[in-house]
Amino acid sequence: MFTGRQRALASLSQGETSSKLNVTELAPACLSYQLHGSNIKYHLPQKQLLPSVVKNDRYLSNWPGHVGGEIVQPKKTFQQSNDNRYHGFDITDTNSAPKPRFLEQLEAHLRKELQVLDPSGPNAREVNLQAYREVFEYFIEDLKTYKPLLSAIKNEYEITLVHLRNRIRELEPLKSLLVTTSQACERRINALRKEERFEIESLKKEKIQLLDKIDYLLRMQDSLETQVSKLKEELAAEYERYREQRDARKLLISDMNNLRYQQEQSKDSHTREAEVVEDTVTLKLALKVAREDLKALQVELNAMKAEYGDVIPRRDFEALDKNYNELTEKNENLQKQYFQMKQEYTTLLEVNKHITLERDKLSAEVEVFKTKMAGGLSSSQLENLPVEAEEDYFEGLGTGEDVIVYLRHDGLIKNVNLAKKSITQTLQEIWKEKMAADLQSGTRSILPEFFHNFLQKKYGDSALLWAYNIYYGCRNHQKDEFISLFFSILNGIVDESVYYGQIQHISHVLKELRAHDTSGKGILSKQEFSQTLKTALPNKKENYIHELIATATSQLADDKKIKYNALFEENTEGTAGAFVALLQSQYAAEKITYLKELRNAVGDTEELTVADLKKAFQKIDPSMDPQILATYLSQGFQTTKEQLDQAAAVDTDTVFDRLQANDIKRVGPQKPKKKPSSDA
Questions:
Q1: In percent, how much of the chain has pLDDT > 70?
Q2: How many Cα atoms within 13 Å fall on the side-chain side of residue 122?
Q3: Which helix (H) or strand (E) holds 90?
Q4: How high is the pLDDT of residue 24?
Q5: How distant, in Å, are the alpha carbons of 177, 202, 437, 449 from that of 432?
Q6: pLDDT at residue 554 is higher than 60
Q7: Quick one: which of 30, 32, 38, 36 has its CA closest to 12?
Q8: Rounded to whole angstroms, how far apart are CA atoms 612 and 601?
Q9: Region for residue 488 given its phi and psi (left: phi exceeds 0; alpha: psi -120 to 50; beta: otherwise)
Q10: Are strands 561-562 and 650-651 parallel, antiparallel or unpaired?
């Protein structure tokens, strides 16, 4: 036979569970109770089954309740010995007064039940509560008078406990949800921190690279300035020697002229004396004196020739002149390199940012102003209207060495508001004069220098006025491809070869069209025109050919016959037509695509060598001529073809920026992409 406590332990060990709590009316012999998370019923045994509790009609006594001897001692933070304690009871009774027998029986029964339990087991508190509940039931049953009140109190406590357990069960999903949400937030915070750390590290690396690049440019600038100052000193020394030699020659020539003048004056005096004095003796004496003077002069002249004749030999003069020319050329090259590096450093950072923003702002204001002032004018008339500036004068940029030569001025310059057509005509004249001058000299001059000389030669004292107006006019008309390209070359952003490459490209197309025109009338059918474009431009994509044909038919308004000469004529504004403009834009787009392929062939390397870039060119364009390949390599590493083998590794971005600034194009046909295998 099991006691109620033993049955409770058996039920807890089997792990009986249920999802619902029920509170039944408490009976004297049985109590149904459900623990949190389990369905366990504890049955109180009948009193006759509990030998430890004997019915006594006189269980109520006058034993003083205030006397010491607590049944359950309060918990302590530190217990030295557990020999005299069993499950909360202190078996050492310090109370000298005897307890009532019924109380002793209840305490003995409770102590016996608690000794069976394991305090460290699961649900220990619930099982202990059941033991106390049984004792309380016995107490209620024996106190008939107080049974209703005590039962009501006990029921209310049981209901409250059940309510609290249900509340705990309802809050447990929220606890798990809170834990899950907290973990998700923690993971997201960690991911954001990791991303921020990666971004910060990337920015730090980029900052270090930029600082290294700036240091390198500053060192190069200091080196160039040192070389320039040294060359200036050498040039000054050579110039001083040359000036001394020139002064010596002038003194020698002056002395010779004086001697010649004295000789002629002596001859004239003797002639006049001969006319006056007819005495033969006098004439003989005069002749003798004249001969002596002549002899003395001849001796002096010979001595001067012997002394000063070889002071400045011609071979020495030629050597000095050659050395001077070489030093001058070297100085000019250094100045050009210094100017180019400075333009790359300052123009790209300042002009490309500040001027672009200012240009967009001014362009928007100009368009609004044109719309307000032009009224019902056509688009071509609106385009030819002069650009009205916000002020009537330009402010000079100063006279320092960091200012371009043709813009060095302090003060105000009159703004004449040049129209776009006038600017275009002036730029065309500059290009025409420059190509003629380069062809005549056999060398290509630098555009900024030629621009300065051209303005000085054509406009004289007004050269500064035209320089500022043309410069700012070009800046305000950046939407025009022709003006934008001239402005970029003038500022050193783009090399002059880009302009000549576009001109050569357009001339090649026109030449091929004329070669395929068997009739010589300047007219081709649409099919002949398409076939000629494919022959002249074998590397051009099919969709680009279709765009050119569509633009040509749209420009000529004829779908059957193509008058190709009209496609290359300039309009009334002096700019190219839609067909030529499309050729130029496709030329630029093909260059960008070609450089992208080259960048992919290079890979993710940070520095490039000549061998790496050469290998990449040969990979994407294997039929490229060796001379063209050497030209592209020398442009990328800014060295001569003879010194490519000694060129050091350069930053990859720097190499591609240099290639972007030059005329780079595909030479051979593009390699076809490999089709995926059918077995894959």
A1: 74
A2: 10
A3: strand 89-90
A4: 32
A5: 80, 49, 9, 15
A6: yes
A7: 38
A8: 9
A9: alpha
A10: unpaired
Instruction: Determine contact, residues 119/75, Cβ cutoff 8 Å.
Output: no
643 φ/ψ sector (left φ>0, alpha ψ -120 to 50, else beta): alpha
Is residue 448 within 8 Å of 405, Cβ to Cβ?
yes
Residue with tokens 């194009």: 665
Torsion angles phi and psi, residue 398, rounded to 5: 105, 175
Q: Which residues contact 511 (CB under 8 A, 6 or more apart)?
A: none
Domain range list for the chain:
4-60+84-144, 205-312, 524-660
**DSSP state for residue 395 in the 8-state scheme:** E
Q: Which residue has the tokens 């004396």?
A: 273
Cβ proximity of 476 and 362 under 8 Å: yes
If we measure between CA atoms, which residue out of 510, 575, 588 comes closest to residue 544?
Answer: 588
CB 235 within 8 A of CB 326: no
For residue 190, name the pLDDT band (cuts at 50, 70, 90). very high
pLDDT band at 353; cut points 50, 70, 90: low
Q: Which phi-psi region, left, alpha or beta, contains residue 26 (left: φ > 0; alpha: ψ -120 to 50)? A: beta
Which backbone phi and psi does 28 adopt, to 5 degrees? Answer: -60, -35
Give the separation between CA 650 and CA 634, rounded to whole angstroms: 12
In the predicted structure, residue 649 carries a pLDDT above the cut 80: yes
- The sign of the dihedral angle between the CA atoms of 68, 73, 79, 81 is positive
Give the Cα separation of 388 and 221 in Å (integer).
40
496 burial class (0-12, 13-18, 19+ CB within 10 angstroms)?
A: buried
pLDDT of res. 367: 52
CA distances from 36 to 114, 123, 170, 667 (A): 21, 9, 12, 85
Q: Do 382 and 498 meet the contact criterion of CB atoms below 8 Å apart?
A: no
Mean pLDDT of 227-234: 88
Give backbone dihedrals phi and psi of 116, rounded to 5 degrees, phi first.
-70, -25
The 8-class DSSP code of residue 45 comes to P
Burial of 308 (0-12, 13-18, 19+ CB in 10 A): middle
Q: What pLDDT was estimated at residue 386?
A: 44
Quick check: 642 and 630 in contact, CB under 8 A?
Answer: no
In Å, the largest CA–CA distance within the chain is: 202
Residue 429 corresponds to which tokens in the numbers above? 């004249």
- Structure confidence by residue, pLDDT tens digits, 650-674: 888 888 888 888 888 888 776 655 5
Q: What is the pLDDT of residue 365?
A: 57
pLDDT of residue 49: 38
Strand positions, DSSP E, 168-276: none
For 138: left if phi > 0, alpha if psi spans -120 to 50, otherwise beta; the answer is alpha
Name the most confidently modeled range: 160-164, 411-415, 676-680: 160-164
pLDDT at 210: 93
The pLDDT assigned to 27 comes to 34
> pLDDT of 591-627, one tens digit each?
888 888 888 888 888 888 888 888 888 888 888 888 8
Question: What is the reported pLDDT for 371?
Answer: 52
Q: For the purposes of burial, counting CB atoms within 10 Å of the CB of 456, is it exposed (0-12), middle (13-18) or buried (19 or more)?
A: middle
